[in-house]
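Show me a record, fold above all:
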Amino acid sequence: KPRVTKALPVTSRQDADRDRVMRAFSAYEDATRELSWSLESRRRQLDPRTLAVIDTCLKEIDKAIREARAALARNPGSAMLNDFLQSSYQQKLDLLKRTVEGPRRTL
């Protein structure tokens, strides 16, 4: 016997989607916060010029995140803004990981 499911009202679906997205962004924030703490503990080991470049990149990414979050507050249903924000968080996460873990060595 086929299972019949009741469709959620549009607002409930939108709320559920928004909650899922916010949980994902919260997970990015938690991960980047932990990696930022690790970076702080490694600062003295890094070349000052390299660190200056990393800090500049992180500031630009943080600016993009702030602007995307503000735009999403005005237009919460925008898939494009959600994608942009997710991409910005991923860039920050990747940069922090590469910095904290050091360069990858290949044979």
In short: The chain has a mean pLDDT of 83.
